[in-house]
Design goal:
Layout lengths: L33 H7 L10 H13 L18 H11 L22 H10 L17 H12 L3 H10 L9 H13 L8 E8 L2 E6 L5 H4 L1 H7 E3 L10 E2 L6 E5 L8 E6 L2 E7 L5 E8 L4 E5 L6 E3 L23 E2 L2 E2 L1 E3 L6 E6 L5 E5 L13 E3 L11 E5 L3 E5 L1 E3 L6 E10 L2 E6 L12 E6 L4 E6 L8 E6 L10 E6 L4 E2 L4 E3 L5
Parallel strand pairs: 8-18, 10-13, 20-26
Antiparallel strand pairs: 1-2, 2-5, 3-6, 4-5, 6-7, 8-9, 9-16, 11-12, 14-15, 14-17, 15-16, 17-19, 20-21, 21-24, 22-23, 22-25, 23-24, 25-27
Helix pairs in contact: 1-2, 2-7, 3-4, 3-5, 3-7, 5-6
């Protein structure tokens, strides 16, 4: 896994700005000319005071981003001000300068050496002021450092905080050596269209870790393009987007269809061979199966047993799942514990067999994989099928072992409709009498019957639920007729309710 690598980025930046390093006494060490910086990098007397940061300092010196004080000193243990932080981040990461005067800031004068850099970060939303004061000459804190770099890179703050922790950044202040290390790491985290596969690690039968030379661009990581970029031999397919792991530079969780144990697979990325790997027969250890509605059941896994949903450990979800999100190291360990990773359940199926009956294929219900803090993906029976009360069912799959995969179905009443409200002529808000939890609205539809006998269908908008309320959108360009009352009912009886109507106001 490509976490904080020892390889330094070779980014050559033009930084011929600021005072001369030949001047008597201390000079502006963050705004020196590139040629002078390269020469200075050969003779710092105090470079070994902080051995861990020496390579990073040397790299930034070569780039012309950082320089010494003109007296053979680079002072790796000196505290960094907010102005110095701004200069180094903007220059080292090649951010476009935006020198517009930030609104509401009282202590940022245009004649200061750091003006362009601080203004750029403020205008980017990466540096904040309090009560109109930026205090550019005060020491930068670890929190400010993580916020600035995450905004500049468009990366999650949790990853930057992890990198900062690895280089020993303290909460109250940041040293020049620590900043240099973090900035060089950040340079490696710049996305590239030329990213290539450097390593393939098979985690289990449906999950790969794929490490790239650089992070993927947002375009290359989007579903449609990713499905074109990734191609596997021997019938294996990628089922959802590659997800960048929290704390990594460029390692992605890639969900696949179930692999054949021992089979040989080749990954082709953007038309070029990217490596071979052997399919894994290792199934994911799930704990139990249980009914959640008359046609839906769940398969549960548990963090306490060393199994984590991928959503807990990827950058994209690190904010939304802050309470349960964490960072796995290169060995997929956290706090000394190893974790199996469940990748995306998209397009996954399980087999459910009634005692003495015929097996059925149940399909994963989108966005139910780990909602409301639980690792419990939901699976729904084929249309028209229901769980018969009193019958024992056994759930199996080709991608998991389920320790307790049987349950006896109970009589569970459908959800109950409470009210509806038209949001506009193509969508409405539907509220149930109780919060269904998780995403039990998912892949459900309602029928609207107008007073003139016309019928419309609306389908739940995925992830729109807020408690007991979800948004439903009309299908196929249909529109509500203003002023007409529509009676609302659930398609296939997933919810009940009488006298539930909705009317689009003439004023809407």
């Amino acid at each position: 896994m490509n976490f904080v690598s020892n390889k330094m980025a070779a980014i050559v930046l033009a930084a011929a700005i600021g005072a001369s390093a030949l001047a008597t006494g201390p000079v502006n060490v963050w705004a020196s000319g590139g040629a002078q910086a390269t020469a200075a990098g050969l003779g710092f007397q105090d470079i070994n005071e902080d051995g861990a940061s020496s390579a990073a300092i040397q790299e930034l010196v070569k780039q012309g981003v950082m320089n010494g004080y003109g007296n053979g000193l680079v002072k790796p243990n000196a505290a960094v001000t907010r102005a110095e932080l701004a200069k180094l981040v903007v220059t080292a990461l090649g951010l476009p300068v935006n020198a517009a005067q930030p609104a509401g800031v009282a202590d940022l004068a245009a004649d200061k050496w750091y003006y362009d850099y601080v203004a750029t970060l403020v205008n980017l939303g990466a540096m904040q002021h309090e009560g109109g004061l930026l205090k550019p000459n005060e020491p930068a804190t670890a929190a400010e450092l993580a916020g600035v770099i995450s905004k500049a890179l468009k990366r999650d703050a949790a990853s930057v905080q992890y990198w900062a922790k690895n280089v020993g950044v303290k909460a109250e202040s940041v040293t020049r050596g620590e900043l240099a290390q973090l900035v060089v790491t950040s340079q490696q985290a710049i996305a590239s269209v030329d990213a290539s596969v450097t390593k393939i690690n098979v985690l289990n039968t449906i999950t790969l870790e794929v490490t790239f030379s650089e992070p993927l661009t947002p375009e290359d990581a989007a579903l449609d393009q990713a499905l074109k970029n990734f191609s596997f031999s021997n019938g294996l397919t990628m089922l959802n987007v590659p997800q960048l792991k929290t704390g990594s530079i460029s390692t992605y969780i890639v969900p696949t269809s179930p692999q054949k144990a021992g089979a040989s697979y080749e990954l082709t990325y953007k038309g070029k061979s990217a490596g071979h790997f052997e399919g894994s027969g290792e199934k994911i250890e799930m704990s139990s199966a249980g009914q959640v509605s008359f046609d839906t059941f769940e398969v549960v896994s548990e963090l306490s047993k060393g199994v984590t949903d991928y959503g807990n450990v990827i950058s994209a979800y690190s904010v939304g799942r802050a309470a349960i999100a964490f960072v796995l190291d290169e060995n997929n360990q956290y706090n000394g514990n190893s974790y199996e990773i469940i990748s995306s359940m998209r397009a996954k199926q399980v087999t459910i067999t009634p005692e003495g009956g015929t097996p059925m294929q149940a399909t994963y219900v989108l966005f139910t994989q780990a909602t409301d803090g639980r690792q419990a993906p939901k699976f729904r029976l084929p249309a028209g099928s229901v769980l018969t009360p009193g019958v024992k069912y056994t759930v199996t799959s080709e991608w998991s072992n389920i320790a307790n995969g049987t349950f006896v179905a109970k009589e569970i009443a459908p959800l109950e409709l409470a009210s509806t409200k038209a949001l506009n002529d193509s969508s409405l808000e539907l509220t149930l009498k109780e919060d269904p939890k998780d995403e039990l609205f998912a892949v459900r539809s309602i029928e609207l019957t107008g007073t003139d006998g016309s019928k419309l269908t609306a389908t739940y908008k995925l992830t729109s639920r807020k408690g007991a309320t979800g948004i439903f959108e009309l299908a196929s360009g249909s529109k509500l007729a203003a002023g007409m009352a529509y009676k609302v009912s659930a398609v296939s009886g997933w919810a009940t309710g009488s006298n539930i109507t909705v009317t689009l106001s003439e004023l809407n």
